[in-house]
Specification:
- The chain has helices spanning 29-36, 42-58, 87-94, 102-121, 124-136, 141-163, 169-184, 188-194, 208-228, 232-258; strands at 2-9, 12-19, 24-28, 68-73, 79-86, 275-281, 288-294.
- It has ten helices and seven strands.
- The protein is of the alpha+beta class.
- The strands form two sheets. A five-stranded antiparallel beta sheet has the order 1-2-3-5-4. The chain has a two-stranded antiparallel sheet with strand order 6-7.
- Helix 7 packs parallel to helix 10.
- The longest helix has 27 residues, at 232-258.
- A hairpin with a 5-residue loop joins strand 4 and strand 5 (79-86).
- The protein has two domains: 2-121, Mlu1-box Binding Protein, DNA-binding Domain (Roll), CATH 3.10.260; 139-267, no CATH class.
- Helices cover 54% and strands 17% of the residues.
């Protein structure tokens, strides 16, 4: 079984998968390259990796040969083949990129491997580490509590899907987007654009209200799916629309009472790098456009 997850190095999110059979982590090479060249733009880092790959091949390096491709979640919410490599291969690759981050990322890779062994022995450690990370990044105790509760709700939903003939990561992404579109009136991709996010995790940049409505939508979806004993994609899509609809109704009632939108462009991005999109509804109420402005 291969387990997909995200790891964090400084302000960079690094996609990774854990192969239980080989008991090894495999990391997205482009994500590691982003750290090394300190490039926030994913496409620029991808082009750098492609050129480096060509040079290493021409030199007869085994480093590229030892890279493989696995499906990982891309910016567009789809699972796409991505170059991945294990720790040993990455350590050799890092030597090919002149970077002040070379030694720190080497230490980080070693630490990640050690922490995995600790987490297997004591699963609560990973939760404690996540909590500590958010505290270090200035999140309030209330926000952290809501983020952790939301993740527990999410895990219960994906456990249900897994046990009811929804197996693939691509299917998880499709169902998640259906639920999100239903409650928020925007897709996951559009919500990230509104917040000015690229490779970052959307939920890590949600407000407390956005986290609560996401959790309500996913909790409702699971309970409806359990009641109707939903099996497979078709039935779980139906449950997702109904569950998201419950959260949509609650969101609209709150917005009517407060006069404030729940879905906003606010995020936790560094101010110098962040932008947001202000949602402006046309007078006809038939179309919506997004204006890109600096978020301060």
């Amino acid at each position: 079984m291969i387990e997909n997850s995200l790891a964090v190095f400084e302000d960079y999110k690094i996609r990774r998968v854990y192969d239980e059979e080989s008991e090894a982590w495999y990391f997205s090479v482009v994500d590691i390259v982003q750290v090394l060249i300190q490039q926030p733009d994913y496409q620029t880092a991808r082009k750098y990796w492609n050129k480096l790959k060509e040079r290493l091949k021409a030199e007869g390096s085994q480093t590229v040969t030892n890279c493989h491709q696995l499906k990982m979640l891309a910016d567009d919410g789809k699972m796409r083949l991505t170059d991945v490599a294990g720790t040993e291969t990455l350590l050799r690759l890092i030597q090919s990129v002149p970077s002040p981050k070379a030694e720190p990322i080497k230490l980080w890779l070693a630490k990640v491997g050690y922490e995995r062994m600790q987490d297997m022995a004591d699963p609560a450690r990973s939760l404690d580490r996540a909590r500590e990370y958010w505290q270090q990044h200035g999140r309030s105790k209330k926000w952290i509590q809501q983020r952790m509760m939301g993740q527990e709700t999410r895990n219960k939903l994906t456990d249900y899907w897994k046990d009811h003939e929804v197996k693939k990561e691509e299917e998880y992404a499709i169902l998640t987007n259906i639920i999100h579109q239903e409650w928020a009136d925007v897709s996951v991709k559009k919500h990230k654009e509104i917040k000015g996010l690229k490779t970052q995790n959307l939920r890590d940049h949600m407000s407390e209200a956005e986290l609560i409505f996401t959790a309500l939508a996913e909790l409702s979806t699971r309970q409806i799916a359990e009641t109707m004993n939903a099996v497979g994609m078709k039935e779980n899509k139906e449950a997702g629309k109904k569950g998201g609809g419950i959260a949509k109704k609650a969101r609209r009632e709150l917005e009517a009472k407060t006069g404030r939108r729940v879905v906003t462009g606010e995020s936790f991005l560094p101010i110098k790098d962040s932008t947001k999109y202000i949602k402006t509804v046309q007078s006809t109420k038939k179309s919506t456009e997004y204006k890109k402005t600096k978020y301060r």
